[in-house]
Amino acid sequence: MKLEKGDISSEGTPSAEDKSILDRKRKQTDHLEGEFKKIKPATFDGESRIGEESKAWLLDIKKYFQIYNYSSNMKVRMVIYNLNGKVGIWWQDLKLAKGLKEK
Fold first, then answer.
1. How far apart are CA 61 and CA 2, in angstroms?
2. In DSSP terms, which residues pair with 44 in a beta bridge?
3. CB 14 within 8 A of CB 8
4. What does the alpha-carbon distance between residue 19 and residue 41 come to, in Å, rounded to a whole number?
5. What digits encode the pLDDT tens for the residues 32-48?
6. In 3D, which of 9, 31, 10 has the Cα closest to residue 18?
7. Looking at the DSSP assignment, which residues form a beta bridge with residue 83?
8. Residues with Cβ < 8 Å from 57, sequence gap 6 or more?
9. Mean pLDDT of the chain
10. 36 phi and psi angles, rounded to 5 deg
11. DSSP reduced 3-state for 83
12. CA 103 to chain centre
């Protein structure tokens, strides 16, 4: 949580009112983080019957990443984790064929 100018009294020690404001801000932040963590990224099974399904999955996963501030490496790991079914098997086969290592 970022403290802003005026969050703490000029004496450097928070007053009872300052503590109350900080506590409310902390509770709001905790609540929002809890709500966002309930959102699960979309999975993809490779069983696309029409091209829009894969595009819709990509759009959903991009929206998910807009909410969370993941590094590029973590984004890749999340996408790999959400590959299911035939596309999950495809990824495993590609990894073996190319000698790729997930870090």
1. 28
2. 83
3. yes
4. 36
5. 556 556 777 888 888 87
6. 9
7. 44
8. 42, 44
9. 78
10. -65, -35
11. strand
12. 18
Mean pLDDT over 25-38 rounds to: 63
Q: How many CB atoms lie within 10 A of CB 64?
A: 19
d(CA 20, CA 26): 10
pLDDT given at position 97: 95
Decide if 9 contacts 18 (C-beta within 8 A). yes
Residue-level length of the chain: 103
Instruction: Kindly tell me if the per-residue pLDDT of 8 is higher than 70.
Output: no
Query: 80: which residues sit within 8 A by CB, 6+ positions away?
Result: 91, 102
Coil vs helix vs strand at 44 = strand
Tokens 């009872």 belong to 16
Q: What is the pTM of this model?
A: 0.57
> Looking at residue 4, what DSSP letter applies?
-
